[in-house]
Amino acid sequence: MKDIHQFLCTPAESTHRHGPHDRIVMSSRVRLARNLRDAAFPGWAKKPERVRILDIILPAVSSLPAMADSFSEAMDNFSALDKQLLVERHLISREHAAKSVGSGLVVDRAETFCVMINEEDHLRMQALRPGFQIREAWTAIDQLDSALEKKLNYAFDNELGYLTACPTNLGTGIRVSAMLHLPGLVLAEQINPIVQAVNKLGLAVRGLYGEGTEALGNVFQVSNQMTLGESEIAIVERLEKVLGQIIEHEENARQSLLEKKPKVIFNHIGRAYGILANSHLISSKETMNQLSFLRLGVDLDLFPGTNRALVDELFLITQPAHLQKQVADKLSAEERDQLRADMVRERLKTVGRPATK
Amino acid sequence: MQCCVCKEKPATVHLTQIVGEKMQKLDLCEDCAKAKGINDPTSFAMADLMLGLGASQELDPTAGAAQIKCPRCGFSQADFKKSGRLGCPDCYQTFAEGLAGLLKTMHKGTRHVGKTPEALRKSRETGDRLKQLQKKLTKAIATEDFEQAAQLRDEIKLLTAGSAVAAKAH
User: What confidence score (pLDDT) does residue B36 get?
Assistant: First the structure.
């Protein structure tokens, strides 16, 4: 089997992709859940049936023109490390990483499409875009889905729409989400009321890796929850409106912090720089949280000449699986902390101390 | 978000459980989650935690309905209670009654609006039109407007004949 790490573009390339509002919206994604008409859902299907479904879906997906340059493989052929790597890249869910025989993955090299086979549903297809581009992501996945419906018999009910394993995804089977970097709202202590307001609008706010995860590095995922009784485009438009408002609140929070509490901001950024540029042992969690402030510093022009992509790349390559992938020997947690610190120090050599205005 | 048990530490364990028609959510901190013995959400009943042991049985007014199994895949309502997921597409028919209320609380509406597979679009439209005509026909008969009723009946005949031909051709 080809090596997925070799196949995908490097973290450096992937973090150099740009999109609108990418200083706040790190990425956009639209996912559709689909199932085949004549089969039990993956969670209930026995192994032979799951394998049969995989053998139908995998070739159908990988033969699509949009997936011409893609990597397609059964999940049992991935090592635990490679699965973790895919989770860190946000290409598969933690649930999918736990799958083995009878599940599969098709992802294109540019990481614009990623299709999970036999996760919770037979098909979980996602379109990914850098920055604030949920509408573009919807258009892309809509086209992929339309091409795929000609090859597969979807389970669809006139009344209930696309039938999904969990009733929470019924109807459109759509989840529109954006990953947001919101250090300003966190520092200004406005994040909780914002999260509550967004929840009231029927949208979910989650941590870095989705359901049930912490908001490490001040990164939040906002997505729709309801899927039935509202069209895909109506959901996309609602998300657009709400995300637009969150972006505005984040910009305002940064601005007013700079005006009213500049020392608080400079303190966080300066300490983050100090720690990252001088550590010899650093955990993945602390790295992410400090990199968040470094990223804020870049956004506020405190590191002239430094590109945000440097921070985003560090954010990715300092995570456990990406770190482990760089060395042959199995690292202990402490060895990882050391390697991580060495790497971050090395990368920050070219970055001068933050300017104080 | 704060832990809903100790109300002190931030909640990092989030649980959603669907019991019959009710959806319950719990947000716990790691310590409280551990103290309550929650590491596998599928194996514990949230009602037990909230209301004390044994309460989960009482919450199920459709104890008889729990015996129903999907003729297609053998999935039961008890399985749904355990996992929150269904067995196969046909389960939506099998458990339609129990699901109706759940869907109402979960979603904006109970009827799908949005994308329809190209191949099914026509039949969906025809189905909708038929329903409409049926309704009008019932009304026309009730108001003894037989002239319109006859017209509607012809229209329905034409439409069903058309879709039967289409089905054969398919």
Answer: 65
- B9-to-A211, B6, B29, B32, B41 alpha-carbon distances in Å: 19, 7, 6, 9, 20
Q: Do B88 and A44 touch (CB under 8 A)?
A: yes
Q: Do A226 and B111 touch (CB under 8 A)?
A: no
Q: CA torsion angle for A243, A244, A246, A247 (degrees, to 10)? A: 120
Cα angle B125, B130, B133; round to 5: 130
Beta carbons of A167 and B13 less than 8 Å apart? no
Q: Which residues of chain B have pLDDT under 50?
A: 40-63, 168-170
Three-state DSSP class for B84?
A: coil
Distances (CA, A) of A14 to A10, A315, B71, B145: 6, 12, 48, 69
A79, amino acid identity: S
Task: List Cβ neighbours of A329 (8 Å cut-off, separation of 6 or more).
Answer: none
| Residue B15 C-alpha, separation from nearest chain A C-alpha, in angstroms | 8
Query: pLDDT digit string (tens) for A7-16?
Result: 888 888 888 8
Q: Do the Cβ atoms of B106 and A166 come within 8 Å?
A: no
A196-247 tens-digit pLDDT: 999 999 999 988 765 555 678 999 999 999 999 999 999 999 999 999 999 9
pLDDT < 70 regions, chain A: 1, 209-214, 357
Q: Minimal Cα distance from A160: which residue of B?
A: B112
Interface predicted TM-score (ipTM) over 0.95: no
Question: In this predicted structure, what is the pLDDT of residue B49?
Answer: 44
Contact state of A40 with B88 under an 8 Å Cβ cutoff: yes
Angle between helices A333-347 and A308-317 (to 10 degrees): 170
State the Cα–Cα distance between residues B90 and B84, nearest whole angstrom.
Answer: 16
Query: What 3-state DSSP class applies to B163?
Result: helix
Q: Report which residue type is found at A211.
A: E
- Contact between residue A290 and residue A341 where contact means Cβ atoms under 8 Å apart: no
Q: What is the structure's pLDDT at B11?
A: 81
Q: Report the pLDDT value the prediction gives residue B37, as an integer from 0 to 100.
A: 60
Cβ of residue A127 closer than 8 Å to a chain B Cβ: no
Contact call for residues A346 and A61 (beta carbons, < 8 A): no
Closest CA to A180 of A240, A131, A213: A131
Contacts of A194 in chain B (CB under 8 A): none
**Amino acid B20: pLDDT:** 60
